[in-house]
């Protein structure tokens, strides 16, 4: 979005490289304005870096997912992905990204879903515990990247 906004800004100034936009009809607002107003983002197996950038798209527009049943998803290690991605995030924002945003978007009744959510046991206490060990048998890119980063840090 920062890149799109940068291009839009250059276009508003009249030129982008050799292309003259001085006579072009341009968007009134920046691309990020429209994206924040009109888009929702399915964050399948997000990394800590993905979640750190949550304000770029708006924390109220992110829907967590595990990409089940695809092999690159984090299932059956969904809880571990949540711990990796959300352990340092404000609990209110975690609740939004893990369920409240989806409920708002799709019109889910959170009170009707509460018993199922309680059975699953995804709590703030669980999510706030940093993930010590990356699942060794997971093909999830987020876990692979985190394993690589940790091994690289140890090698230094």
Question: How would you explain this protein's 3D organization?
Answer:
- This protein has 156 residues and is mainly α.
- It has helices at 2-12, 31-38, 48-52, 54-57, 78-86, 91-106, 110-120, 124-127, 141-155; strands at residues 15-16, 19-20, 41-44, 62-65.
- It has a two-stranded antiparallel ribbon.
- The mean pLDDT is 94.
List descriptors:
156 residues, two-stranded parallel ribbon, single chain, two-stranded antiparallel ribbon, mainly alpha, 4 strands
Shape: globular
Count every helix, treating DSSP H or I runs of 4 or more residues as helices: 9
Arithmetic mean pLDDT: 94
Strand content: 5-15%
* Percent in helix: 40-55%
Which assembly state applies to the chains in this document?
single chain
**Uncertain ranges:** none
DSSP strand count: 4
In sequence order, what are the helices and strands, one letter per element?
HEEHEHHEHHHHH
From the helix content, strand content and strand pairing, which structural class follows? mainly alpha
Task: Give the topology.
Blueprint: H1 2-12, E1 15-16, E2 19-20, H2 31-38, E3 41-44, H3 48-52, H4 54-57, E4 62-65, H5 78-86, H6 91-106, H7 110-120, H8 124-127, H9 141-155
Parallel strand pairs: 3-4
Antiparallel strand pairs: 1-2
Write a brief caption for the model.
The chain has 156 residues and is mainly α. 53% of the residues lie in helices and 8% in strands. The chain is built from nine helices and four strands, in the order αββαβααβααααα.
């Amino acid at each position: 979005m920062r890149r799109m906004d940068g291009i839009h800004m250059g276009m508003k100034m009249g030129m982008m490289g050799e292309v003259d936009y001085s006579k072009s009809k341009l968007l009134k607002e920046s691309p990020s304005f429209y994206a924040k107003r009109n888009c929702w983002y399915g964050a399948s197996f997000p990394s800590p870096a993905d979640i750190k950038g949550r304000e770029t798209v708006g924390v109220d527009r992110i829907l967590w997912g595990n990409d089940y049943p695809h092999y690159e998803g984090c299932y059956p290690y969904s809880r571990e992905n949540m711990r990796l991605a959300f352990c340092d995030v404000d609990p209110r924002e975690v609740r939004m990204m893990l369920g409240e945003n989806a409920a708002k978007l799709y019109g889910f009744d959170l009170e009707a879903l509460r018993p199922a959510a309680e059975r699953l046991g995804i709590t703030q206490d669980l999510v706030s515990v940093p993930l010590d060990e990356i699942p060794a048998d997971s093909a999830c890119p987020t876990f692979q990247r985190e394993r690589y980063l940790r091994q690289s840090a140890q090698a230094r």
